[in-house]
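Progress note, project year one: complex with magnesium ion.
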Amino acid sequence: MKKTVFACDACGYETHKWMGKCPRCSGWDTIKEYKIEKEETQVHEKPLIVNDEDFIEEKIVLGMAEMDRVLGGGLVSGSSILLGGDPGIGKTTLCFEIASKMVELGHNVLYISGEESLKQLSLRKKRLNLQKPFSMLTTNRLEDILHAIRETPYNLVVIDSIQSTYNTSLPMLPGSIGQIKDVSSNLIMEMKRADMAHIFIGHVTKEGVIAGPKILEHMVDTVLYFEGDKMLPYRLLRAIKNRFGPVDEVGIFQMSKQGLISVENPSQFFVSERSNIGSGSTLFPYITGSRPIILEVQAITPKTNFSIPKRISLGYDSNRLFIIIAILEKVLGKPFFDRDVYVNVTGGMKVNETAIDLAVAASILSSYKDINIGKNTCLFGEIGLTGEVRKVVNMELRLKECGRLGINRIFCPQGVEGVDSGVAGMEIIPLKNVKELNSLAFSK
Ligand SMILES: Nc1ncnc2c1ncn2[C@@H]1O[C@H](COP(=O)(O)OP(=O)(O)OP(=O)(O)O)[C@@H](O)[C@H]1O
Ligand SMILES: [Mg+2]
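Model obtained:
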């Protein structure tokens, strides 16, 4: 049976009648008529009763510590992963390393690239010093991919990228919403049926979300974002969705000429440049997933040159920054109307825990009063609107990480008395409110 559809060449908008102008992308004369063949005889799937013993979850431990951590312990066989990230951030490099590890573990891998030539791929493999060979295919046609995966059973298939892959029987351009939907649903269905794990590399838009329909994120099991400042040598791998593990784990990699190296001691990594600190800098033990990372929080509070003072925050919620400044003004009587306040969490980390409040307040006070809080001092605790310091989760884990890095003076909420930091001689100072912080840490 033949069905007629009208679809926009530019954005994939579908309609049942022809129009001169596309209502979605406003393109003129982009809507074309297409005839689609519909299969008349269909094989229907039957419902089944499944016993718990019928299937077991197989996690392949890749031996890339940070990747395994983000995946929730390893790559689940037959799972579908979407990996998004800015151009040039290292998506292909990461997938090459995963492919090589899989081959080392005795698995069969196919790398499909619709963006680079075979020569480019093989030179990249050489540069990354990956010894084990794996199959490569340079195509962006869905039909070629389906043919290849039907011929050989692979354990892992990487598609670089989902936006460059298209179904030739569809009218829309590669990368359009209709194409992405069609290509991904076809590939997921085919590979899930054959129990092949697969990674789709996805481009991100200017706004930082994976280009294409949001539905793509619903279709896959795991959504990973590879991010970081291209000027800095390290990259963060974050799980936004994971059907096989926690979503708040962060993997940290260092980008080098030879590829990505797992950073297994991130605290050391993030505070290593902090030998000569001045005022306005404090340390905070951040918990991401199951791991504590010591981060540096910096603030400066110069006299303002603007009629409305500036408040800029990088890595910390800017609304909370307004609240912290208001609390410091109210509780401590410090005027900030003539001061700009700039706060930065170094290393490009974005902290969404309220436990960082105390370190932010301390950095602002330290800069305001020009008093250095000390190199080996760390702070954590949430600040309430009346200036009280509130308890946070994982206090023991935070104290232990501080102890491990030789930090011996901790300001924290009350209730920490019974917690064992595991380090003798650590000075733990429980605070009731920010007034106490001011008097104990910043009185000359
Ligand atoms: N010859 C080289 N020497 C050192 N670093 C390199 C070299 N070639 C590439 N890189 C690093 O690898 C990064 C590119 O990685 P990769 O190609 O994996 O990114 P990508 O996310 O796949 O990009 P795209 O979106 O363009 O596909 C570069 O930004 C650079 O930091
Ligand atoms: Mg790439």
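The mean pLDDT is 88.
Residues 57-263 form a domain with the Rossmann fold fold (CATH 3.40.50.300).
No further modelling is planned for this target in the current period.
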